[in-house]
UniProtKB/TrEMBL annotation:
It holds the Pfam family CBM9_1. The lineage of its organism: Bacteria, Pseudomonadati, Bacteroidota, Cytophagia, Cytophagales. This is DUF5916 domain-containing protein. Signal peptide: none annotated. Residues 39-184 form the Carbohydrate-binding domain. It comes from Aquirufa novilacunae. Residues 238-326 form the DUF5916 domain.
Length: 729
């Protein structure tokens, strides 16, 4: 092992993690008087006089090298907008820029893109991030400490692009109301943190203006440069967004379990967003509707953990990071299969079978500043789950201290006529230095129905530099821990998981390989009641290669021990209690995800409890032009001689997705799923037109057929038409 570390250290000689620049890079935009039209042409005289900077520090693939192609950024501002223009040189040709589709919040690794990270309070921690790909599709998010991200936050701004054989141009017009900065009387200059970055997909290259190590992202704001001498206007007296909607829904149901019915409903509702100050935002919602939200992807779960389905409803996605205390998928490293969240918004407005329950009204308040963050949510749910109504209340507070540390608390209460359930938690995040951090939480639950108290906790150490990532995660969840407004993947366990992987680079590797990433990961789970080991596994990927084009070639081995204390029934196969040991192998092949034709295939084979299991997970996508995208996913599992009945069983899950776009604002999305486990077939078709920024027309058709518990088919169909309108005051 000592020689392995020496070898890897030698290979990484020039891959050091460096400190932020001192002094920071600086840039001062030019103030103008008239308004500009953001169309990507840059033909106004003001742009020819604007100061500029270059994005010239290469982060990937060769940290510290000069960027392969010139990227120039200009900035202007007036009383209404902050303007940013990027001229991004290239030689791929007008039709060679990479953009597999035009959806909002596209995948970062799949596109030619330009991005801006703005730290308006200059606290070197938090940022508003605005991006555009070469075809003008937007991607925006809120970033906190480069660890937590509100990816589904949608900012109000305009961006248009133009493409030529020598470059592509992105022009942004960002209203001051979208940004957050200290109060001002409109006469005093401010300094903000800022960074600019570019991804060039033809060479899979990341370049930035203000340098940072490749173990971090451009959203690590203590490495950002400084925007100086900017004089933003004072906040408007109101700064209110009013978003009413009209909705018409028709539903049809046929089946012995769901009944036979046909309904048609008209609904009026909306949301109000009030930016009280640069640090405080209040949201109101009434007759809340999520009919246009993306549908869940089917999963055939063969593990002993509950499946975590992500939130897809826009109201709950905004500012989600503030309320996301716990060990959850949003964290940088999960460190095992355990997720513990005191608050999970999918418990609101959905019953235990994920059927929607009407939300009468609700409100959310969020305060964010350099020193502290706090917020609250109150939602009133209508009749469902056997109760005539349910009230949901969440309170969250976190205090920043030191350079990048914080402590916090969260309390949730779910109250109805039949029960009052409360969850409380204390959490902390400490960044010891640029490489080492700790996060942890302790949480308790109690409800009035049975007066039982439950407890859970976790702690995670994470070390990450350009060469190695190591983590150690410890979790404990009691059998009575029941966060009725949260999520936990497993109860009655004490677990420890450790992992290490390396990022090995060198000229001795084949030219098509960017880095070799060998790793080892272990998990051990004990029963809290008996103290016995109930599950342990070790996964090793000694041959794992990340390619220059973004693809992957990898192989892994997986050794597992399962000690069942009760029956386990994956996909309907009964496995009796007992001790089982087995060994599995697998490999993954993935191509360039930005290419017109891309795909991946993972194949695993070997033991599964007392039998064997083969699995294939394949994805294939065709995107001849950014306006047309077709994706196919196939998951196949074959069980042989498994369980009490020594069953042989095949299970298939097929998913077909299509996206056809006139432009980033007018798109038709189709989604089909077929799961042979319960003979499920579902179709979702959605036409979305953003006829002006954040104002939409939706036409949605859904159909669902599945096999009920009595082996008869259950059928549901719905059609909805929805119009929303955003008015800014």
């Amino acid at each position: 092992m000592r020689y392995l570390f020496l070898f890897i250290s030698f290979c990484s000689f020039s891959q050091e993690v460096f400190s932020p620049l001192v002094p920071r890079k600086e840039f001062q935009p030019l103030k103008i008087e008239r308004a500009l039209k953001a169309d990507g042409n840059l033909d106004e005289v003001e742009w020819s006089n604007a100061p500029s900077l270059g994005i010239d520090f290469q982060v990937e693939p060769f940290q510290g090298n000069k960027a392969s192609f010139s990227s120039q950024v200009k900035m202007l501002y007036n009383h209404q907008y902050l303007y940013v223009a990027a001229i991004l040189r290239d030689t791929v040709g007008k039709n060679g820029y990479r953009a597999p589709n035009l959806k909002r919040d596209y995948q970062f690794v799949e596109n030619d893109l330009f991005g801006i990270a703005i730290d308006g309070f200059n606290d070197k921690r938090n940022a508003i991030v605005l991006q555009s790909n070469a075809y003008g599709a937007q991607r925006d998010l809120l970033a906190f400490d480069d660890r937590q991200f509100d990816i589904d936050w949608d900012g109000l701004y305009r961006v248009r692009t133009q493409r030529s054989d020598s470059s592509w141009v992105a022009e942004f017009a960002i209203p001051w109301q979208t940004l957050r900065y200290p109060k001002t009387d409109g006469t005093k200059a401010q300094d903000w943190g800022i960074n600019f970055f570019r991804v060039r997909r033809a060479s899979n290259e990341l370049a930035v203006w203000s340098p940072h190590p490749r173990s971090m992202s451009p959203l690590r704001m203590d490495y950002a440069g400084k925007l100086t001498g900017i004089i933003p206007p004072p906040p408007t007296a109101t700064n209110i967004r009013f978003i009413p909607y009209l909705l018409q829904v028709s539903n049809n149901s046929e089946g012995t379990e769901i009944g036979n019915s046909s309904t048609s409903d008209f609904k009026l509702g909306g949301e109000i967003k009030w930016a009280i100050s640069p640090t405080s935002v209040m949201d109101f919602t009434f007759n809340t509707d999520f009919a246009q939200a993306d549908v869940d992807r089917q999963v055939n779960n063969i593990s002993r953990f509950s499946v975590f389905f992500p939130e897809r409803r826009q109201f709950f996605l905004e500012n989600a990071s503030l309320f996301s205390a716990g060990l959850a998928p949003v964290n940088e490293v999960v460190g095992g299969s355990m997720y513990i969240q005191p608050f999970f918004s999918r418990t609101i407005g959905l019953d235990q079978n994920v059927n929607p329950i009407a939300i009468t009204a609700g409100t959310r308040f969020v305060y964010r500043s350099e020193k502290r963050n706090f917020g609250g949510i109150y939602m009133r749910q209508g009749e469902g789950d056997g109760d005539p109504f349910t009230n949901f209340l969440v309170g969250r507070y976190s205090e920043n201290f030191g350079k990048q540390n914080r402590i916090g608390a969260i309390v949730t209460t779910k109250s109805s006529p039949s029960n009052v359930a409360t969850t409380g938690a204390l959490d902390a995040f400490i960044r010891f230095n640029d490489k080492l951090s700790f996060s942890g939480m302790g949480t308790m639950t109690q409800d009035s129905r049975n007066s039982k108290q439950g407890f859970a906790e976790y702690g995670q150490f994470l070390y990450k530099d350009n060469l190695v990532t190591l983590y150690w995660t410890h979790t404990l969840v009691s059998d009575d821990y029941n966060p009725e407004m949260g999520f936990v993947s497993r109860k009655n366990v004490l677990s420890n998981s450790q992992g290490v992987d390396f990022n090995v680079r060198g000229n001795w590797l084949p030219k098509f390989v960017r880095f070799w990433q060998p790793g080892v990961y272990t998990e051990v789970y004990h029963s809290l009641k008996t103290g016995n080991i109930v599950e342990q596994k070790m996964v090793s990927g000694p041959l794992w290669f990340n390619l220059q084009n973004g693809g992957i070639i990898g192989g892994y081995i997986d050794a597992s021990v399962q000690n069942l204390e009760e029956d386990f029934n994956p996909v309907g196969i009964r496995i009796k209690p007992g001790s089982y040991s087995y060994f599995r192998k697998g490999f993954l092949l993935a191509s360039d995800p930005s290419a017109k034709y891309s795909g991946s295939t993972e194949y695993g084979w070997g033991g599964f409890f007392d039998g064997t299991l083969q699995m294939i997970d394949s994805k294939f996508r065709v995107a001849p032009i950014p306006h047309v995208n077709l994706g196919l996913s196939w998951n196949w599992s074959k069980f042989e001689n498994v369980g009490v009945a020594r069953e042989t069983k095949e299970v298939n899950l097929l998913i077909l997705e299509t996206r056809m776009a006139i432009n980033p604002r007018l798109q038709l999305i189709g989604f089909y799923q077929k799961n042979t486990t319960d003979n499920l077939n579902s179709v979702n078709m959605r036409l979305a037109w953003e006829y002006q920024p954040l104002s939409y027309v939706y036409l949605v058709f859904n159909t669902l057929n599945y096999q009920g518990s009595d082996s008869t088919q259950q059928k549901q169909q719905s059609f909805l038409a929805k119009l929303s309108f955003l008015k800014q005051f």
